[in-house]
Amino acid sequence: MSRYSCSSVSLTTIVQEAGISAELIGASDVVVTGITQDSRLVQQGDLFCCVRGQFADGHAFAEQAIHSGASALLVEVVQPNVPSHVTQVVVSSVRDVLGSVASATFGHPSRELKMTGITGTNGKTSTAYILSEILKAHGATVLVIGTLTGERTTPEAIDLQHQLREFIDSGGTHVVMEVSSHGLVMGRVNGILFDVAVFTNLGRDHLDFHGSYENYFAAKAQLFTPALAQHAVINADDKYGQLLIDVCEVGVTTFGRAVADDVRVDVGSVDFEWNSLSVHLSMGGEFSLYNALAAMTAAQTLGVTDGVIVNGCERVAGVPGRFESVPNEEGIGVVVDYAHTPESLEGVLHSARLLTEGRIIVVFGCGGDRDAGKRSVMGEIASRLSDVVYVTSDNPRSEDPSAIIEEIMKGARSNTAEVHSCVDRSEAIHDAISEARIGDIVVVAGKGHESTQETRGVVIPFDDVDVARVALLSRKKNDR
What we know:
This protein is of the alpha/beta class. 35% of the residues lie in helices and 22% in strands. The protein is globular and about 80 Å long.
């Protein structure tokens, strides 16, 4: 959360342009020159937004914001003893209107851009990356917002709207962004009307936050309403995609496996025929086909021609941590993937099975302070679809790593795979690569692009690809 300056604008204009229902208490001629929801950053002339958070309520810091020079407060509860020169904008939910207010403050930047929002459990990052390359081939200047670009997959509303304004000022034309379920529930994309909204799939994730599949799906479905999207692109092969098609309130274009012919999948590439054109994608795995089709269909909806779409796909050089192959001369496949849900782990292992007649050796764990119910499920999937399993740490966070591993092991012991447990992730990766035979594939799953590991509040550098490279060098030395 940050504080940003804006062009001088009257508070009355912001409220009117935001299209919100609000009561103004105080002077009607207040001018706003900045906006923030962090009281520590307030400057003279700012609109301070009193957001109720998980750990703190912004209303408790209204007095501090006034002392720092705030000219207006966005509140749910009228604050007492506010000076007459400070205007209160009273709404039913600050979080719900914050996106629209921020959009109006920065002159509605999304209206000047071609906006694509991508949601779903798996594939958002890769789909966004592929679509961005297609749009660049189309001649667009593209901003990608998502898992690889910031602390949050979907930035807070004020941060997001300011980022869009800066992008326009630098000559930008198109935005491709991942829209998380958290972002939708917390109103971070309110105030944006996406030209295209894309649905990839729905699997088990974030149930610690949403509580149930029904709530999780309902959160994702918010993106496909007239308030947020003009057109939908939906995976018709996903059961929740079918449900979304049935209830979607905007125009729908579907995609699915049936539109791709002569599909050829390798560790580092996918080739197929589409609309009588040959498509080459330098990303491996069966699931990469779906990500490509999602991006290609969205591009068509945005008016990109088929030939340019194919050229754009050929520009894709792979996405960090998404079925990322670690090259080596050892005769084994080594793949690093972000798979951290049951469905994504299953997809990665199915893809690996298609690529080898040897063994599949998987290294994975589950994050702490997150949905614990998926741990044994992922253990069962790993031991059913692999020959050798190393259960290890992911990001334990505040939890005991050994306890997380034991929960995973409850499912992993249910099949015939050879199963090991090892708290030290680096050691587990080294052991897996060391024991691989020529023709085997080692899948290191769960962390993907992440460059750190968090255990009991301590964050250390940790990159699965780097660790795998070191393990391969160690193996090579030992083979001499």
